[in-house]
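User: Hello! I'm new to structural biology and keep hearing that structure can be predicted from sequence alone. Could you demonstrate with CRISPR-associated endoribonuclease Cas2? Please show me the input and the output so I can see what each looks like.

Assistant: Of course. The first part below is the input, the amino acid sequence of CRISPR-associated endoribonuclease Cas2. The second part is the output, the predicted structure written as tokens.
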Amino acid sequence: MMYVLAYDISTENANGRKRLRKVAETCENYGQRVQKSVFEFQLDDKKFLMMRNEVLELMNKKKDNIRIYKIIAPKDNYVEEHGNFKSVDYDNDTLLI
């Protein structure tokens, strides 16, 4: 299943900047950054729950905002890409080096 996660982490102090780095690192472990605070994931249910729980444990619920979108139909039906960035095509064989 494909998911999109977007976050807005408060960076008013050192703790917020640390949370921002940790959330980004956690997301990078599971998916692909498509913008500064937006990631795409192709995960099964178990991996999704692991990623979700890790990210939610890092956030400050009073200061931060995390949104997760589940893309149910084929991505091409709902996602338009413009500009020079191209995402990984998870539906075809991909070799990452």
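User: So the tokens describe the shape?

Assistant: Right, they're a compact way of writing down the 3D structure. Reading them back into a model, for example: The beta strands are 2-8, 32-35, 38-42, 65-71.
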